[in-house]
UniProtKB/TrEMBL annotation, chain B:
Ranges annotated as spanning the membrane: 31-56, 68-91, 111-131
Source organism of the structure: Candidatus Vogelbacteria bacterium RIFOXYB1_FULL_42_16
Keywords: Membrane, Transmembrane, Transmembrane helix
Identification of the protein by name: Uncharacterized protein
Domain of life: Bacteria
Amino acid sequence: MSSLLTTEVAKKKDEDLIPLVLANSEVFGVIIDRYNEALARYIRRLTRVDEDEIKDILQEIFIKIYRNLNDFDHSLKFSSWIYRIAHNQVIDYWRRSRSRPMTAVDPDDGFWSSLADELDLEKEIGRQEFGSQVRLLIDELSGDYRAVIILRFLEEKDYQEISDIMKKPLGTVATLINRAKKKLKTLAEQKGLSNQ
Amino acid sequence: MTNDLKNEIITKIKTESLHPKPRWQILLVDWVWWVIFGGAVFVGSLVLSVAISYLAQNDWRLYSSVMGLSVSDILSSLPLFWLVVILVTVWLASHNLELTRRGYQLKTPKLIGVILTLSFFIGSFSYFIGWGDELENFSARLIPHYQNFNSANLKLWSNPDKGLLGGEIIAVADQKNLLVRDFNGQDWLVIGEDIDWLGGARPKNGSKIKIIGRTDDKEGRVFIAEVIQLWRP
């Protein structure tokens, strides 16, 4: 693509890129550039797989996005639709690899403060150690609970976005988040991390 | 990583001649789920019409005049087989609606409410145009052991010792003297001085009836009737 065309294309909104991608597959590179890091981070947060595996999963995700471009529902946010594909692909990966996913979360994320406040967890131990402790707690949550906690507190998605990503009603999303928080709190108490 | 990955993906798309799935194919899959959903609701509605037909065979007014019946006796007259089938069709309908592009947005209770409401209206309509009765007769012929699944009503009215007798009129002397064959194939002489024929029914050969009364202590297979009603009021 010419540099002028590239500049013009780069300005377009995600949804407006779809007809351009359908006409020229090279334009798909713009979508890859926009979402590559965010999706890699999401995969890293959901699973504790190495960078090579993240790359393989990402490739599968983007190929799937490309193959399903005509399936995009304009009533959704484009990012929600992409995250939905990524989410489903990670679940498929879990099923295929049969490995128990671990959570590789950056302990420097602001996640810990907001989650600690939500759950009234102990904060006096060192932040790094606290981070790895909470990471292990999240490890013990089942798939849906882990996903909603990460989507809500790390990815900072609102309830509607989570509903669209996980294809669950809003009420179910709210229930899952509440139950996940309760479960985390119970686990934290069992491991002596809670204030109570 | 980004540029490498991007180049690999674009190269793969080109070398393997990958294309986005055509929109008609995507919509077709969605329509398939909608068709299965609609089919499940329709089948559920027909089943509901059979259940209504079955329940219509009961006369709840009669139950109130019968003493000594346990709750389980009355509950056993419900069409349990068909209720189970309705639950299965409701599950199938809600499962398929969730697979459609936007069906997941409906809350589960609302989803089930929509399905049951649709089934109720279509089922009631089907019953009133006679499909419920036809389907019940059809099921009785086609489904093996159907009578065992849905014979609770027959069992209820095969309790002459408890004052309940059901069967088919095979001979009529007059309104006070009938010969009735019960559901076990046994013949009963049904007599009564002051029989209350509910709903203005008249005895005629071939009619199925329900009788409340008592057995004659002295004579075998003589039933003294107090109330008689057609099987289907």
